[in-house]
């Protein structure tokens, strides 16, 4: 069985910097036509100068692949209209992190509501710059995303023209609000379509599956599968592939993040085939995002075949999901 995907896009990707970038960038740039690049470096990307030089480093590390990194700024409450107007041609969106909620987010925002963030959100709305949100409160770990729903609703109501993307949703509650507000959209990862908290911590602890937001219950996973497999027009694929060196994952104090970029398309094909929805994969991994972002990626064809692929145990210093295991689909050609 074969499948061709046109210009797949990864709408939530961590590539990191330095030596790590040299490992990660080619893995995404070979298989994807474009990706939304997260800005949570240390220090975070908050100026155009940083952003432009980071993009240059990504393109250098990406070799000669046809690949567009869609850059993001790390949300600051003092971005004004003039700055954002200047930034707009260089960015795909702005990523809002609650302070301290995940990797490298200490410079995030302490209070998230439309009044506190009015200046920047008004400018973003006027300029049609998407707001990408890590939607978790600092409550109990399993409740954080559910508690954030009220914040999403308040923002969606008060900024009806602002495109709000709920990043890496993991709960049924998040799925349920998608249809209630025209301006809410969502990315869904590969791993949240496959695992629950049981896979992370129900048996022996599996640090390489530990991420933020933490995987939830079966009911939540089913709700995510429902909208992903049917390629609901308001959801798109964002891997949230988040590499950390092995020493930081297999550690007392494990860093959050699952590394999926090199296996994402193959395992998505496996999953969509298993559920009889292969014909919806193109929309989930590219077409929906093109419509939501109003963006046309460079032309690239990725040819997949249902033949076994043994996932490498490591890529550089990073352990991927399914390390050393056999997956059912392979990428056989890209052009
Ligand atoms: C991400 C990272 O490591 O940068 N970690 C994760 O668990 N997903 C940050 C994020 O998206 O939360
Ligand atoms: Zn992320």
Overview of this protein structure:
The protein has 335 residues and is α/β, with parallel strands linked by helices. It has a single domain (7-296), classed as TIM Barrel (Alpha-Beta Barrel), CATH 3.20.20.140. The protein is 34% helix and 16% strand. It contains eleven helices and 13 strands. The strands form three sheets. Strands 2-3-4-5-6-7-8-9 form an eight-stranded parallel beta sheet. Helix 1 packs across helix 2. The longest helix has 15 residues, at 144-158. The chain is globular and about 50 Å long. The protein starts with a strand and ends with a strand. It binds N-carbamoyl-L-aspartate (NCD) and zinc ion. The site of N-carbamoyl-L-aspartate has 11 residues, from loops.
Number of strands: 13
> Helix content range of the residues, please?
25-40%
User: What's the number of domains?
Assistant: 1
The main sheet comes to: 8 strands, parallel
Bound molecules: N-carbamoyl-L-aspartate, zinc ion
What is the second-level CATH architecture?
Alpha-Beta Barrel
Strand order of the largest sheet: 2-3-4-5-6-7-8-9
Helix-strand pattern, N to C? EEHEHEHEHEHEHEHHEHHHEEEE
- Please identify which CATH superfamily we are dealing with: Metal-dependent hydrolases
Can you tell me the residue ranges where pLDDT is under 50 for at least 5 consecutive residues?
none
User: Strand-residue fraction?
Assistant: 15-25%
CATH-defined topology:
TIM Barrel
The oligomeric state of the chains shown is single chain
Class based on secondary structure composition and strand pairing: alpha/beta
Number of helices: 11
State the end-to-end distance: 19 Å
Shape call: globular
Mean pLDDT: 98
**Computed CA radius of gyration, to the nearest angstrom:** 18 Å
For the record, the CATH class is: Alpha Beta
């Amino acid at each position: 069985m074969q499948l061709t995907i046109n210009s797949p896009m990864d709408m939530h990707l961590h590539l990191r910097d330095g030596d790590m970038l040299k490992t990660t960038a080619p893995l995404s740039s070979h298989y994807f036509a474009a990706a939304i690049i997260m800005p949570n470096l240390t220090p975070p990307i908050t100026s155009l100068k940083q952003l432009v030089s980071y993009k240059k480093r990504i393109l250098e590390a990406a070799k000669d692949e046809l690949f567009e990194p869609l850059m993001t700024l790390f949300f600051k409450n003092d971005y004004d209209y003039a700055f954002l107007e200047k930034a707009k041609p260089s960015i795909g969106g702005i990523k809002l992190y609650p302070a301290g909620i995940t990797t490298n987010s200490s410079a995030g925002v302490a209070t998230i509501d439309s009044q506190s963030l009015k200046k920047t959100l008004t400018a973003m709305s006027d300029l049609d710059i998407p707001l990408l949100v890590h939607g978790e409160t600092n409550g109990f770990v399993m409740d954080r995303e559910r508690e954030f729903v009220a914040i999403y609703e308040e923002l969606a109501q008060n900024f009806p023209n602002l495109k709000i993307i709920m990043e890496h949703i993991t709960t049924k509650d998040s799925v349920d609000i998608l249809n209630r507000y025209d301006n809410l959209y969502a990315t869904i990862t590969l791993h949240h379509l496959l695992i629950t908290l049981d896979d992370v911590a129900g048996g022996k602890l599996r640090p390489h599956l530990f991420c933020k937001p933490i995987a939830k219950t079966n009911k939540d996973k089913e709700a995510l599968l429902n909208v992903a497999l049917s390629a609901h027009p308001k959801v798109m694929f964002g891997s949230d592939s988040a590499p950390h060196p092995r020493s930081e994952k297999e550690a007392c104090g494990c860093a959050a993040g699952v590394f999926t970029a090199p296996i994402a398309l193959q395992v998505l094909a496996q999953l969509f085939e298993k559920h009889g929805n292969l014909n919806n994969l193109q929309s989930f991994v590219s077409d929906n995002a093109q419509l939501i972002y109003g963006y046309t990626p460079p032309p690239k064809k990725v040819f997949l075949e249902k033949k076994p692929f043994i996932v490498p145990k490591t890529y550089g210093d990073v352990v991927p999901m399914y390390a050393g295991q056999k997956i059912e689909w392979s990428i056989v050609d890209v052009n």
